[in-house]
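S1.2 Input.
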Amino acid sequence: MSGEMKVKKNDIEQALSKLKSSTSTLQTSLPQSIQGNNVLDLVTELNNLNRAIEEMAQSYKQLLIQNEEATRQSVQFIVDTDKKLSIYAK
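S1.3 Output.
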């Protein structure tokens, strides 16, 4: 095993762009109320579950956005560090 790590920035950028695109089109909304004229407890519980699922999906979407940005920054840091180190290796 060599001590060299290769970063394929273009491949990473393409994957992150695909992730960003998929994240931006992720639909997180559910029906706010399915009750209508129905007064069953089950309908109330389903409405509560829908709200909880929607909140969780929004949080997940926000995490995906944050992770995508953090990954971009990390890759750029690695590339920049590699350039700086190559100057000293000469």
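S1.4 Remarks. The longest helix spans residues 41-89.
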